[in-house]
Design goal:
Layout: H1 7-39, E1 41-42, E2 63-65, E3 72-76, E4 83-85, E5 98-100, E6 105-107, E7 122-124, E8 131-133, E9 145-147, E10 152-155, E11 169-171, E12 176-177, E13 180-181, E14 194-196, E15 202-204, E16 218-220, E17 225-229, E18 242-244, E19 249-252, E20 266-268, E21 273-277, E22 290-292, E23 297-300, E24 314-316, E25 321-325, E26 338-340, E27 345-349, E28 362-364, E29 369-373, E30 386-388, E31 393-397, H2 400-403, E32 410-412, E33 417-420, E34 434-436, E35 441-445, E36 458-460, E37 465-468, E38 482-484, E39 489-493, E40 506-508, E41 513-516, E42 530-532, E43 537-538, H3 544-547, E44 554-556, E45 563-565, H4 568-574, E46 584-586, H5 589-594, H6 608-650
Parallel strand pairs: 3-5, 4-6, 5-7, 7-9, 8-10, 9-11, 10-12, 11-14, 13-15, 14-16, 15-17, 16-18, 17-19, 18-20, 19-21, 20-22, 21-23, 22-24, 23-25, 24-26, 25-27, 26-28, 27-29, 28-30, 29-31, 30-32, 31-33, 32-34, 33-35, 34-36, 35-37, 36-38, 37-39, 38-40, 39-41, 40-42, 41-43, 42-44, 45-46
Antiparallel strand pairs: 1-4, 2-3
């Protein structure tokens, strides 16, 4: 058969000719459909101002067209603060391939008319406020990406999605579906590589058919009620690089076969009911970036191979029963960013290479049995924000450079056996919000440099051997809400400047050797709920005006040398026990009776009854005595007159 060299060119010219004939009418239909779509939206950023009556919609913001036909093939309005409802008019765009409207404020229902857009390959309306039951969109057989996640869709889970066998990425999670099971037909989606079904109210087990989807690379079934043993069949998914199964009801042990998934980068099976030892093979997953198994019941040691990993960023095993020594080289070759191994039974020396990369931001190891000194190498952590190693058996002095880490927000060394002083370098940790040093063996003076920490909200130095005076510089800490200095060897008077700490909620200075008066400035602490000054040698009169504005739920001034009258307000706040051991304190008799107080009655402070006893009654007795004397005097006068008369008669 003879070939015609210009036949294909002729065909293209014909197409162009017919498209020029058709495009004006088709374009006007699409312009009108888009304007109706716009009419139902609110556009505070005025992104749709370019959507006006015109011959072609191809210049509209966020709209793309086929260069040959001029027909609309895509709408992309991601994160444009749009609100309102999605108009059904969108279904008139017959050539539409991509509809991308995520991260807006769209509401109402998803139009069922979208089922007419049979050329759609991508539909993304995630992170909006859409509601109602999802319409059946199973006619969209060309869909490759479907993302309806993070909305408020309700009703049954849309099992019709398992008919969309061309899907590569499927995200339906984080909606309000009825409780139910994962459809067994999920296995029909043989091309699926990404699935997001988190927070979808699933119960029961993951169907075995799911593990036949060998193209799967990332799965997220987190925060459901999925039960049963951790599925061994997951080892069939050789391309898997991400497993998110946290916050479910899974039980059993981690199968050793999991170590065969050599492409794994992220594992999160936290907050389940799993137990047993960690398979040694997990330490050979050299691509691992994230490993999270917190809040389970795992026991035994961390596989040694974790010390040789080169990509690990996040490692979290808190609240398990893991034990033994930590891998010696852990963190030495990894760009560690976060490690949380708190509330386990780890022992031996504290791992010394955690800051080797200098990128660590969170170091959380509280509630273990680590012993020995805290490694000075941690001073390399210049980006460290949280340092919590409380409730261990650590001892020795903390290296000076660690106190002054420039970005640290929380330092928690509490409940160990640390010694030494707080160095002046603490004043350079200007981002510090919480400092916990309680129940150690720290000594020396409390450094005045603490006054430079403008963001400090909680200061716990109790249960140590700090001495000297309380620095008045603490009075400039306007964010301070908790001040605990109890059980130390502090001396001197309480600085009046503490009354300027307007945010204080609790203050405990008990069990020291403080003296002097309670500062009058304490009356300014109107947010204070708890005040403990017990077991000191405070003196002076208990002036009610010093504490008159306070509304305390807890008050303890016991075991001091205070004097004066305990007011009814203070007695109501603290009860008798708050004032015991102060021999000079007393209450009025009427208050003692009214509040059944065991405190002694004040002398020299006469009540009405005492006035009656010591003034009115004696006065009445004096009046009676005077009256009696007057009567006797009159009687005597009468007798004298009678004697005089008798003498006159005798004459």
């Amino acid at each position: 058969m003879a070939k015609h060299p210009f036949s294909f060119l002729h065909f293209l010219l014909c197409c162009c000719f017919f498209s020029t004939l058709l495009s004006p009418s088709l374009s006007s239909v699409e312009v009108e459909a888009l304007l109706r779509f716009k009419k139902q939206l609110k556009d505070p950023l005025r992104r749709l101002d370019s959507w006006k009556v015109s011959d072609s919609p191809c210049e509209f913001f966020g709209v793309s067209c086929d260069p040959m036909t001029g027909l609309v093939t895509g709408i992309s309005l991601d994160n444009q603060s749009l609100s309102g409802e999605i108009s059904p008019s969108i279904s008139e765009l017959q050539s539409l391939i991509s509809l991308v409207l995520p991260t807006n404020l769209l509401s109402g229902h998803l139009p069922a008319e979208l089922n007419k857009c049979i050329n759609l390959r991508e539909l993304n309306v995630s992170v909006n406020h859409l509601i109602g039951t999802l319409p059946d969109l199973s006619e969209l057989r060309n869909l490759q990406i479907l993302d309806l996640s993070i909305n408020y869709f309700s009703g049954p889970f849309p099992s019709w999605v398992t008919n969309l066998t061309g899907l590569v990425s499927l995200s339906l999670g984080d909606n309000n579906y009825d409780e139910g099971e994962i459809p067994e037909s999920i296995g029909n989606l043989k091309n699926l590589s990404f699935i997001f079904f988190a927070r979808s109210q699933f119960r029961g087990e993951i169907p075995e058919s799911f593990f036949e989807i060998t193209t799967m690379e990332s799965l997220d079934f987190s925060t459901n009620n999925i039960s049963g043993h951790f599925p061994k069949s997951i080892a069939k998914l050789k391309k898997l690089h991400k497993i998110e199964l946290f916050a479910n009801q899974l039980t059993g042990e981690i199968p050793s076969e999991l170590a065969n998934l050599t492409l794994l980068q992220e594992i999160d099976i936290s907050r389940n009911h799993m137990y047993g030892k960690l398979p040694e093979g997990l330490g050979q997953l050299k691509n691992l970036v994230v490993f999270q198994i917190f809040e389970n019941n795992f026991s035994g040691e961390i596989p040694a191979g974790f010390g040789d990993m080169h990509n690990l960023l996040l490692f979290s095993t808190y609240r398990n029963n893991l034990s033994g020594e930590f891998p010696a080289n852990f963190g030495r070759f990894s760009p560690l960013n976060i490690i949380d191994i708190s509330e386990n039974q780890f022992s031996g020396g504290f791992p010394k290479y955690l800051c080797e990369s200098g990128k660590l931001q969170f170091l959380l190891a509280l509630g273990n049995k680590f012993s020995g000194e805290f490694p000075g190498s941690c001073s390399k952590c210049r980006d460290l924000q949280r340092l919590r190693i409380s409730e261990n058996l650590l001892s020795g002095e903390i290296p000076s450079a660690i106190w002054g880490l420039p970005k640290v927000e929380i330092i928690d060394f509490g409940n160990n056996e640390f010694t030494g002083r707080i160095p002046p370098q603490i004043g350079t940790a200007t981002g510090l919000t919480k400092l916990y040093l309680e129940n150690n063996k720290f000594s020396g003076k409390i450094p005045p440099e603490l006054g430079k920490l403008a963001n400090l909200g909680k200061l716990y130095l109790n249960g140590n051997d700090f001495s000297g005076k309380i620095p008045s510089e603490l009075g400039v800490l306007q964010q301070l809400s908790s001040l605990h200095l109890e059980e130390n060897s502090l001396t001197g008077s309480i600085p009046a400047e503490l009354g300027k700490c307007a945010m204080l909620v609790e203050m405990n200075l008990g069990r020291n050797s403080l003296n002097g008066n309670i500062p009058e400035s304490f009356s300014l602490l109107t947010n204070l709920h708890s005040l403990n000054l017990s077991w000191n040698t405070l003196t002076g009169s208990l002036n009610p005006d010093n504490l008159k504005n306070l509304k305390l739920s807890s008050l303890d001034l016991s075991m001091n040398q205070l004097t004066g009258i305990v007011s009814s307000n203070l007695l109501q706040m603290g009860g008798d026990k708050a004032f015991l051991g102060n021999k000079g304190l007393c209450v009025e008799k009427s208050l003692k009776i009214q509040m059944h107080s065991g405190l002694k009655v004040c002398r020299g402070n006469n009540t009405k009854e005492e006035l009656l006893l010591f003034f009115i009654i004696p006065s009445v007795l004096v009046i009676i005595l005077v009256g009696f004397l007057v009567v006797i005097y009159r009687e005597c006068k009468k007798e004298q007159r009678c004697v005089f008369c008798d003498k006159r008669l005798e004459i």
